[in-house]
Design goal:
Rossmann fold; binds adenosine-5'-triphosphate; globular; 772 residues; alpha/beta; binds magnesium ion; isomerase; Arc Repressor Mutant, subunit A; DExx_box_DNA_helicase_dom_sf; 15% strand; hydrolase; 5 domains; single chain; six-stranded parallel beta sheet; eight-stranded mixed beta sheet
Length: 772
């Protein structure tokens, strides 16, 4: 082998090498966390180009985040140079946008369609539901959105949904779905699920289009295959082809780990990986078992937890690296104590030279848990960065500004138009908006056209004052659009929007400190736009292989307003993860979901409490519990050298203290792997919640030392309650039990105490509460 090719293979183990060299039939690499699946995928691409002389333009690779895509492209470019540019390496969504821009006409859409995110989509659903006279209590937009999204993930269109509907809810959903799609089309917009569904639609409806992509892409590679849903699965099948158009199927290589499937709520189905061999009968499967990421202690813990799940292919991860440190456990009095422990421990590791800030990640189950960490990190001056959460692009002021830009780029974008119609306030009230909207419906014209008609006095019932306000607004938008047409760059357009609409002036005049930070955020957006203008992401020229026409650049022109909006729309959570090199030494905070595919030398996985993690929803549902357990497996296996697992005895939720028992996942880790730094509330003065039990903190501590730290409550008497029982609590007063979970030492009840709130309590110890 030439040295260059040998170098691609020599730091791989035999199984990995087999996967890289495999040719001719579909290939499935299934393996546990950290066993080098992503490495195999990247190497395989480089090997295809270097050894099998595949043209880069024939390669399509799909990753889970744009960041992963960029990284993969970079790694391949390191190996094969600039030729890497002709590959399509992207997320499912970005890849579909690229196809749809080219094929939009076949779907009756303009190629500059808007992409609606979850919030836009819910706004549109709210409008639709209102117009269909649905009771918003019974059919909240959020619920409708979940149902419609599920249908789209299953590739069920509105018509089929209506035919299949067997109850009232399903019929309503189908009705909303149909109208929602009509409005999306009218607004020349697609939501995120549409991007996948409509790409499949194009490929199915137009054999010549399918054949074009099929001819073009001879190698399709998919990372994190366990998280594909049915629509994405079908898309992959379509791209690979069945050999019925005269071309052999493309070579498919998918890598994944059924134990890391954590997106069931988005319709992902493990089925896709479990039944790969059935769907592709000539498939070859490669298993990888050696882990190169974590210490043996971490792997043993991960194996032990995941082995509690039923119906899985058993696999044992091992490493040649040795046991390493024990896993550290910590029990905080409350969430602040837990966060202090994390912060102090990070300080200690950094001071003693064990780690840098950037080696450390803190995980939690839900975004809102980041706040406590942020507070303490700020207090201690520990630099950090939160990935996800209330993301920059989800802030109100950012969305308002972007809505203006979208209206300028796509005049038919009704959701954006209605969003900014009266922001800042300009005297176009809800009534006026309703008049215009009714007129638009009656005349079957867009909302934008109806607004224009209003300026000519054609809209009935619109009072003269509102009409003047509407005219002012239409003039404002027309003026701004001239700005765009004159070829001003995005940052200048944005500046003009903020000035001419009065948005900036309004914030400047306010003395609400929140408005000051809104201004800062808007300035940040201007900076983003400026950077974009200075270094627009020039799409690589599409060097298609010989004999095949390149995909035309029908997408928005580089550096244009539309290109800017497209990039902003496709920013995913994980895209903002700082690179290890340029993170400037900050600790990274993120949810367990976001952590997938990543690795850190030091990991703190926090909030290990029943009701938090596993999530409350999962406590009584074995299917959900299995998914939470996979999440635990993902979390544990992110750690390379040190892993900390912690919980708090009391945690505030909805402004009320809640006492949560230890996460059941603690009990699933062999006790000898855990080194408990602190097991109970012995250190500080007893808090409110530890005294209500009527036991002194010493007696709590004593019982904990007798049994294992997580089962220390076992000897307490317990109060037995069921849903509907009335109780009287010394502190919270009268209440009604709304949920009862767990058994024995894990018994808890969620009790509605009226004005004192709904509180979840452990039912062990001498609870200062009586059943009535
Ligand atoms: P996950 O399931 O979490 O996505 P993965 O299976 O994709 O993990 P990788 O991220 O590819 O695993 O690899 C984990 C780590 O092990 C990386 O740091 C990678 O560089 C390293 N690694 C993989 N294979 C080898 C090998 N043969 N020799 C040395 N290091 C390796
Ligand atoms: Mg991976």
């Amino acid at each position: 082998l030439p040295a260059r090719v040998a170098a691609l293979l020599d730091d791989l183990n035999d199984h990995q090498r087999r996967a890289v060299e495999h040719a001719g039939t579909p290939l499935l690499v299934v393996a546990g966390a950290g066993s080098g699946k992503t490495r195999v995928l990247t190497r395989r691409i480089a090997y295809l180009l270097a050894e099998r002389h595949v043209h880069p333009g024939q390669v399509m690779a799909i990753t889970f985040t744009n960041k992963a895509a960029a990284e993969m492209k970079e790694r391949v470019a390191d190996l094969v140079g600039r030729r890497a540019n002709a590959m399509w390496v992207s997320t499912f969504h970005s890849m579909c946008v690229r196809v749809l821009r080219r094929e939009a006409k076949s779907l009756g859409m303009g190629s500059s369609f808007s992409i609606y995110d979850a919030d836009d989509s819910r706004r549109l659903l709210t409008l639709v539901a209102r117009d269909l006279d649905l009771d918003p209590k019974r059919y909240p937009a959020r619920t409708l959105s979940v149902h419609i999204s599920n249908l789209k993930n299953e590739l069920v269109d509105a018509e089929t949904a209506a035919q299949n509907a067997s109850n009232d809810l399903e019929r309503r959903v189908a009705e909303v779905y149909a109208e929602y799609q009509r409005r999306l089309a009218q607004a020349n917009a697609m939501d995120f699920d549409d991007l996948i569904m409509r790409t499949v639609e194009v490929l199915q409806a137009f054999p010549d289009v399918a054949e074009y992509y099929h001819r073009r892409f001879r190698h399709v590679l998919v990372d994190e295959y366990q998280d594909t849903n049915h629509a994405q699965y079908t898309l992959v099948r379509k791209l690979v082809g069945k050999g019925d158009d005269g071309l052999p199927p493309a070579e498919l290589c998918v890598v994944g780990d059924a134990d890391q499937s954590i997106y069931a709520f988005r319709g992902a189905t493990i089925r896709n990986i479990v039944e790969f061999e059935r769907d592709y009968p000539n498939a070859t499967t490669v298993l990888l078992e050696q882990n190169y990421r974590s210490t043996q202690n971490i792997l043993t813990a991960a194996n032990a937890v995941i082995s509690r799940n039923a119906n899985r292919r058993d696999k044992r991860l091992w490493t040649a690296e040795g046991d390493g440190e024990k896993i550290v456990g910590y029990v905080g009095d409350n969430e602040h104590d837990e966060a202090s422990f994390v912060a102090n421990e990070i300080d200690r590791l950094v001071d003693s030279g064990v780690a840098n800030n950037s080696d450390v990640a803190v995980f939690y189950r839900t975004n809102n848990q980041s706040r406590v960490f942020e507070e303490i990190f700020i207090r201690l001056g520990l630099p950090y960065r939160v990935v996800g959460g209330v993301r920059f692009y989800e802030r109100r002021e950012i969305r308002d500004a972007l809505a203006y830009l979208r209206v300028l780029a796509n005049p038919d974008d009704t959701v954006s138009l209605r969003r900014v119609l009266n922001v800042p306030k300009r005297g176009i009230g809800e009534r006026a908006e309703a008049c215009v909207s009714t007129y638009a419906d009656r005349e079957r014209i867009t909302f934008a056209a109806a607004l224009r008609a209003a300026t000519e006095g054609k809209v009935p019932l619109l009072n003269p004052r509102s009409q003047r306000a509407v005219s002012g607004f239409v003039e404002l938008i027309d003026g701004l659009r001239r700005f765009v047409d004159d070829g001003q760059d995005v940052a200048e357009v944005l500046d003009a929007v903020l000035d001419q609409t009065g948005y900036r002036a309004e914030l400047e005049a306010s003395d609400d400190p929140q408005d000051a930070s809104r201004l800062e955020n808007l300035n940040e957006l201007v900076t983003v736009a400026r950077e974009f203008t200075e270094a627009p992401e020039v799409m690589a020229p599409d060097n298609a292989p010989e004999g095949i026409a390149p995909v035309e650049q029908t997408g928005p022109a580089a550096g244009s307003l539309a290109a800017f909006l497209e990039r902003v729309s496709l920013v995913a959570d994980a895209d903002s993860i700082p690179d290890a090199e340029d993170s400037g030494g900050v600790v990274t905070l993120m949810t367990l979901h976001t952590a997938k595919g990543l690795e850190y030398p030091v990991v703190f996985s926090t909030g290990w409490e029943d009701g938090i993690f596993p999530h409350m929803r999962a406590l009584s549902d074995p299917v959900e519990l299995a998914e939470e357990r996979r999440l635990a497996y993902v979390g544990i296996t992110r750690a390379r050298e040190r892993l900390y697992l912690s919980r708090a005895i009391v945690r505030s939720a909805w402004g009320q203290p809640m006492t949560n028992p230890a996460s059941r996942f603690f009990d699933e880790i062999p006790p000898d792997l855990l080194d408990w730094r602190r097991v109970g509330p012995e250190r500080s003065a007893p808090t409110r919640a530890t005294t209500w039990g009527g036991r002194s903190s010493e007696s709590v501590q004593a019982s904990r030392q007798r049994a294992s730290p997580t089962s220390g409550w076992k000897d307490g008497p317990s109060l037995s309650l069921s849903v509907g029982d009335r109780v009287n609590h010394d502190k919270y007063g009268l209440g009604t039990v709304v949920a009862a979970d767990g058994q024995g030492p894990r018994s808890t009840a969620t009790i509605d105490f009226g004005s004192s709130g709904t509180i979840r309590l452990m039912l062990i110890g001498s609870v200062p509460m009586v059943k009535l």
